Amino acid sequence: MSQEISPNRKHPGPGSSPELRASHADRDGVVDVLRVAAGDGLLTAAELDERLEAALSARTVSELTPLTADLPPVSTSTGAAVAEVKDVLRIDRRFSAVERAGRWVVPRRLELAVEWCEVTLDFTQAVITQDTLRIDVDMQGKTLTLVTKPGIVVDADALTLEHSKVKIRQAPAPGTQITLRVELVGKKSFGRVVVRSPRRTLGQWLLRKPASLPAGD
C-alpha cells in the first residue's frame, strides 16, 4: 500500500523541545523531498540550490521544517526517498553499453566488471543516501564517464591505469559543501575515464528543459 512520508524522521510532540537536533536521516529526508519537488517543477534551480544548502547545514529539526512546509510529501509509490539502497551493486557486462541516469538509487558500493562497452554513471538526478561511494573498477576498453554536479567530487588516485588515462573536468567552487565523494579503485585497461559536468545546466536537467540552441540555429 502506498503511504506518504514526511521529510522529517521525527515530529515534535506536546511538550517536546523545538530545538531537537537534526540527524542525518532528517536532513536526507528533506533533501529528497526538495529534489523530487524540483523534478516536478515546484522549485526553480535557484530555489533548489538555496534550500539544499540550508538543509545540509541545518543543525536542528526546527531549521528543516520551513524548507518543505510549502511542498507536498513524497509518496513511497514513487520509489523516491525510501527506495531500497543496495549495499553492493554489481554490473557485469560485455560488448553492450551500461547507463545509469535519472533517479537511480546510488548503492553504498558499486562493482563494475565490464569489457569493451561504454559505461555512463550520471549523478545529476540520482538518489544519494550516503556521503561516499566506492566503485571497484575492473574495466577493459571503451570509456567510463561520470557525470557530476556541484557537491560531488571524484577521487581516482587509487585507480590503476594500463594503456588508459583519466580526464577530470571538475573544479569545485571554493566553499562548496561536498555531498558525495566517489572513490575509484581497481584497474582500468585501455580506453579512458572521464569526469565531467552535465552538458545542460542543473536547472535544465531538473526541470526537463532542452538545452538552448546556439544563435542562428
Describe this structure in words.
- This protein has 217 residues and is α/β, with parallel strands linked by helices.
- Helices cover 20% and strands 30% of the residues.
- The chain is built from four helices and 13 strands.
- Strands 3, 5, 7, 9, 10 and 12 form a six-stranded parallel beta sheet that branches.
- Helix 1 packs antiparallel against helix 2 (45-57) and helix 1 runs parallel beside helix 3.
- The longest helix has 16 residues, at 24-39.
- The protein starts with a strand and ends in a 10-residue tail after the last helix.
- Mean pLDDT is 80; it is low at 1-6, 8-12, 76-83 and 211-217.
Task: Give the overall pLDDT as a whole number.
Answer: 80
Q: How much beta, percentage-wise? A: 25-35%
Q: How many individual domains?
A: 2
The tally of strands reads 13
Helix count equals 4
How far the N terminus sits from the C terminus, by CA atoms, comes to 49 Å
Order of helices and strands: EHHHEEEEEEEEEEEEH
Q: Main beta sheet, described? A: 6 strands, parallel
- In percent, how helical is the residue content? 10-25%
> Runs with pLDDT <50, length 5+?
1-6, 8-12, 76-83, 211-217
Q: Which characteristics define this entry?
A:
six-stranded parallel beta sheet; alpha/beta; elongated; disordered N terminus; 217 residues; 2 domains; disordered C terminus
Describe what is shown at a glance.
This protein has helices at residues 24-39, 45-57, 61-68, 202-207; strands at residues 4-5, 74-75, 88-94, 98-100, 109-115, 119-122, 132-140, 143-147, 152-155, 159-162, 165-168, 180-189, 192-196. With 217 residues, the chain is of the alpha/beta class. Residues 1-6, 8-12, 76-83 and 211-217 have low confidence and may be disordered.
